[in-house]
Amino acid sequence: MSEWHRAWNEFRCLAAEIFLGLALSTYPKTSLRKIRLAQFLKDTLADTLREEWGLK
After folding, report:
1. Would 8 be classed as within a structural domain?
2. Confidence at residue 42, expressed as pLDDT on a 0 to 100 scale
């Protein structure tokens, strides 16, 4: 994978994390359990994308 593709994929992962972080920040914080679940899903998605794109 070229350096350009690696940088592009890293940017896409970061953008996905930012987007999901913003979505979580607007989510009604009804319980700590839901917040932890949403944070776990965000982190898991970011890790999955990095593995898929060969960034780990």
Report:
1. yes
2. 76
pLDDT in tens, 19-54: 877 777 776 656 777 777 777 877 788 788 778 877
Is 38 within the bounds of a domain? yes
Global pTM value: 0.55
What is the separation of C-alpha 26 from the centre of its chain, rounded to a whole number of angstroms?
16
Neighbouring C-beta atoms of residue 13, cutoff 10 Å: 19
Residue 14: domain span: 3-18+28-52
On whether the CB atoms of residues 9 and 53 are closer than 8 A, the answer is yes
Helices then strands (H, E): number in the chain? 2, 0
23 inside domain: no
